[in-house]
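STRUCTURE:
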């Protein structure tokens, strides 16, 4: 997916193109995109492609096209202080942008299937905190990444204000995804080849909007351990404060 806008020479020019094409429509989303340089989430040898409106994949590492991330960020309707769950959090690029909007009283969790990608995301987050000028300009809700299958989140975990899934959701898992959402919350996910926004308007009431046609790799089904037991993903949600202590450079 991608190719909806022209390539940029740098991150700001890419954002200019996304804004001109109406993929980026709000000031908060624009500020977050400008603050996080997409090239920083690429491997060094592939950075020449970072400002093209194209998806990128290398091994288990994957980034969606900028136009897709733009639509996702706009659809999530992010606000300071919300709780966010990123399923298939990948490089942490999206989670870092979201964290700039959530601020210090939000919650920012990511679940990633592949342990090598979780480690990659942590390294990129550390680089962002140590080197980016943007880190000093925003109140940042630092993402917390865990490794596990997002279809195996412990039933005892809290629900979230905003949820995004970065893999194609099969129809039989739609109800599970909805169960992760608080009343009043927003879920954005690829469902049956359409990027879909679902708002929970009541305990059993939902509003659904199809945003655009997309092609995502499907969710990988859980596999049992040798003991025959599933490996539940534990998430700790502390409402009212970002659940990681804010870091400063040099710490």
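SEQUENCE:
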């Amino acid at each position: 997916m991608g190719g909806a806008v022209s390539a940029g020479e740098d991150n700001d020019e890419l954002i200019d193109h996304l804004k001109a094409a109406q993929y980026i429509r709000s000031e908060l989303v624009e500020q977050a995109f400008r603050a996080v340089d997409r090239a920083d989430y690429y491997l060094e040898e592939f950075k020449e492609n970072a400002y093209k409106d194209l998806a990128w994949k290398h091994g288990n590492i994957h980034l969606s096209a900028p136009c897709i991330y733009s639509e996702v960020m706009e659809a999530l309707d992010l606000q300071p202080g919300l709780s966010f769950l990123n399923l298939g959090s990948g490089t942490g690029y999206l989670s870092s942008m979201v964290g700039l909007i959530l601020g210090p009283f939000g919650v920012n969790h990511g679940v990633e299937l592949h342990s090598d990608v979780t480690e990659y995301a942590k390294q990129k987050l550390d680089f962002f905190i140590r080197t980016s000028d943007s880190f000093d300009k925003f109140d940042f809700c630092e993402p917390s990444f865990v490794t596990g299958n997002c279809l195996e989140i412990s039933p005892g975990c809290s629900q979230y204000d905003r949820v995004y899934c970065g893999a194609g959701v099969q129809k039989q898992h739609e109800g599970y995804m909805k169960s992760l959402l608080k009343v009043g919350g927003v879920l954005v996910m690829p469902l049956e080849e359409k990027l879909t926004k679902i708002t929970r308007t009541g305990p059993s009431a939902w509003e659904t909007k199809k945003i655009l046609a997309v092609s995502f790799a499907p969710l990988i089904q859980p596999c049992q351990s040798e003991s025959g037991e599933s490996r539940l993903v534990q998430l700790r949600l502390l409402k009212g404060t970002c659940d990681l202590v804010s870091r400063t450079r040099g710490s």
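REMARK: The chain has a mean pLDDT of 90.
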